Amino acid sequence: MGTKAPNLHVSEWVQGLPTNIDKNIGKVILVEVFQVNCPGCFMYGLPSAIEIYKNNSKDDVVVLGLATAFEDYDKNTLENLKLLLSSGKVIGETFNALGQYGQLVEGDKLNYKIPFPVAMDVLKKNTQDFSDSNVIDFIESNIDNYNSYSEPDKKVLFERIKQYLKNKKYSALTFDEYKLKGTPSAILVDRKGNLRNVFFGANNYLNGLVNQLVNE
């Protein structure tokens, strides 16, 4: 943290004018990363980002949405993102979960609108075969304290990661560059363009941290 935040890799700006991190230096930047087929993104991540968007001056804070895909590639698509933003319709597990909790209107639509610009991450098809050294590199970059695991636990983890990489049809470039662990994730960049925080999952600290950066 504290290093320059890399620009988002964008395949298409689906909502709002094209922009990026380097275009918003001088403002605090929040990037809310989500998947279309991610109930938690719509129950926790996006509502939190919308609250921050509504409660802050546009001169101080820029909120951007980035849809990505690290699983369920048949559902987390550009087409389903466009469907969501144009009509409010949700699909897959998002539809099932929000319907169960009574958070849909007209049968299959979100009960809120996403008001900020939203882009789609760049997905690059994986063609390589992952070697054992690739698996180890991935584990050491993403799993804290791997070397403290017992040998049996290391073997189990190794096989799980190997299978995960084997089934990983695409690499999402922004997701991978920021080393995100899942969705919802939030990327927080200060006014100088430095990466300050990356969060995974729902949290209660984001609004306070945004305010802190605004007042720096």
Detailed description of the structure:
α1 packs across α3 and α4 packs across α5. The protein is globular, with a radius of gyration of 18 Å. The two termini are 16 Å apart. The chain is α+β, with helices and mostly antiparallel strands and 216 residues long. β9 and β10 form a beta hairpin. The model has no long low-confidence stretch (mean pLDDT 91). Helices cover 36% and strands 21% of the residues. The protein has two domains: 157 residues, 3-Layer(aba) Sandwich (Glutaredoxin), CATH 3.40.30.10; 41 residues. Strands 1-6-3-2-9-10 form a six-stranded mixed beta sheet. The chain has a two-stranded antiparallel ribbon with strand order 4-5. Strands 7-8 form a two-stranded antiparallel sheet.
Key attributes of the depicted protein:
216 residues, alpha+beta, Glutaredoxin, 2 domains, 6-stranded mixed sheet, two-stranded antiparallel sheet
Q: What level of helicity do the residues show? A: 25-40%
Straight-line N-to-C gap: 16 Å
The CATH C-level name of the largest domain is: Alpha Beta
Strand content: 15-25%
Largest sheet: 6 strands, mixed
Gyration radius (Cα, Å) is: 18 Å
Discrete helix count: 7
Strand order across the largest sheet: 1-6-3-2-9-10
